[in-house]
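Why run this: before we spend reagent on co-expression, it is cheaper to look at a predicted model of the complex and decide which construct boundaries make sense. The entries below are exactly what would go into the expression plan.
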Amino acid sequence: MATATTRPAPPNADKRWRMVDATSRRYGYESHALIEALHTVQECFGFLDETALRYVAASLRIPLSKVYGVATFYHFFTLKPKGQHTCVVCMGTACYIKGAGALLESLHQNFGVKPGETTKDGKLSVLTARCVGSCGLAPAVVIDGNVLGKLQSPDLLARIQKWEAPQ
Amino acid sequence: MTAEELNKIVTAEIEAQQQYKQTVRVCVAAGCLSSGADQIKDGLQKQLATAGLDKEVKVKGVGCMGLCAAGPLVSVEPAGVWYQNVTTDHCAELVASLKGKPVERLRLDTNIPFYARQKKIVLENCGEIDPDRIEEYLARDGYGGLQQALTTLSPAQVVEQMIKSGLRGRGGAGYPTGLKWSTVAKSQSAQKYVICNADEGDPGAFMDRSVLESDPHRVLEGMAIAGYATGAIEGYIYVRAEYPLAISRLKAAIKQAEKMGLLGSKILGTTFCFTIQIRLGAGAFVCGEETALIASIEGKRGQPRPRPPFPAERGLWGAATLINNVETFANVPPILRHGADWFAAIGTEKSKGTKVFALAGTVTNTGLIEVPMGISLREIIFDIGGGIPDGKKFKAVQTGGPSGGCIPDEYLDMPVDYESLAKVGSIMGSGGMIIMDETSSMVDVARFFMEFCMSESCGKCVPCRVGTAQMHDLLNRIIQRKASAADLALLQELCDLVRSTSLCGLGQTAPNPVLSTLRYFRDEYEQLLSDGQPASAPAALAEVAK
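The model came back. Tokens follow.
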């Protein structure tokens, strides 16, 4: 117990690491804080990079292999940076039946990105979700955190093209 | 806080509510919110202020009002006038109508079967109270069940009430809740835990989300009662990270309850202590399985382990753990308030009470419903659901998500209860009900679910990890018209193998969608076999095959 006082220093001066530290501290730096800590990293930085994984592993004193195992096991965590905007197409049963596949197809045709990919200019990431729970509004798409329901391809494309246009 | 102090708050709240002559409710559950309910609420507030009515009329955001298809929904109480598809442009008109006649062209008739045929226990406060205010929950007898338990019943009597009520787990399997509680209560474990499973991963299900977003205190109260009955002092809610609104409302609710002394130490002036923490899921369907969920709370990969020992004996950190689903906990407070006999009188002989279903797919009235057990599928789909839109024909209803099956029209008159659904090869599941019309290809639906199970398989046991991938391959080959009759036989054999040898529920039930579609729609498979008759496939499938 007495040796538990030395904690690793944050990788750099970025203030966001304090948020990560706060989460680890809330759970007493116990190993069960891992998922919560990774959530905080992703919330603050947008994704989990190697530096972050190493830092979380060191603070909670968990082997890096285990941290990597958890980070890759759960779909919610991403190890790649997301684009400026994200577009999550719900692929739940109700959305699937009501044409979520067509939405993905039109995104692919217009922007050349498949689920999990980001456009070359880093503006748009297309993702899929298992079910966002808005089945009453199928097909649903979550754009930058806002759920949009009963969406048809032209509406979706129009929304995205607004960002694509040079500003 | 003691019971008397609580009563004062309730009286003050009721008085405050009575100061307003009218209340305008705006549905701010996720569905309506995504179609702009927030702006409508602000718009109404502004218009009321302009009209000088803001002292008489209260605008409040409420939880799910049910008919998501017609959202955003607004209602004017106590007149009981409901409006559908409201936009910000309508705000001025609606405010003007408060002193006169309702705006007929926007009205939603609440006498339609969608509302008339429902029976609300779990959802009794949904769409009625502001989920962000504990006072409103208290004013509707909230925490009355907990008070009753703490002051008049012993823990053993609470367990007895649960057994007598006949409540069964609403997460899908239907294990008797009272029995589970009594196992944990009897355990000699020094530390015990209560876990609420809010990892609603079934695609097509949004009941738990709606309950958490609309009436979070009900779940907290249910968990506290469970803690008292079983001797646990710590509770966890494991909720999907994909439900940010539910998480923020839960967090707020826990804070309010702690402030009022309804959670924490010395609850309601008694010696009972109970705390609740939130843990976020991270997008793994398998974490809905109880042992995987426990692993995830412990900060590990969400992989299940063999049972027994069941979590009721050895669960979280090796201690006896009670795990129930959101809807199960939501049923607990009313059972204690009204008594076990009241609850046991609703429903069928073996399935008591009501069930919340999320209606989705090709049905006119998509949304959230609560019906007594034993109602027929036909009543749900055609009366409450309003039938199939665009004059199409009903083909099948899918219950239980990736673990359930597709039920064809010949079983529509079957009562909805745990046993009947199991008999036709499906399960009650958590309550997702997806309706499919004639344009849906059942082979494609089976492949969709198999793809789901394949990518959600945690990889721990071979039958599930490899079997789902092989079945998915075979289904793909069938859809591409490259499969023979032998492949179909192989598919069936694999279904049997994966079902009997997988470690956890995910693998054991993964073949269900294939088995049930093979049972009722075998001709659709056979039409696609390369050595069969190249008969005409449904239009949707022709698209897919391309």
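The interface with chain B takes residues 30-36, 38-39, 66, 69-70, 73-77, 91-98, 129-138, 140, 145-149 of chain A (CB under 8 Å). Residues 34-45 of chain A form the longest helix (12 residues). Bring this page to Monday's planning discussion.
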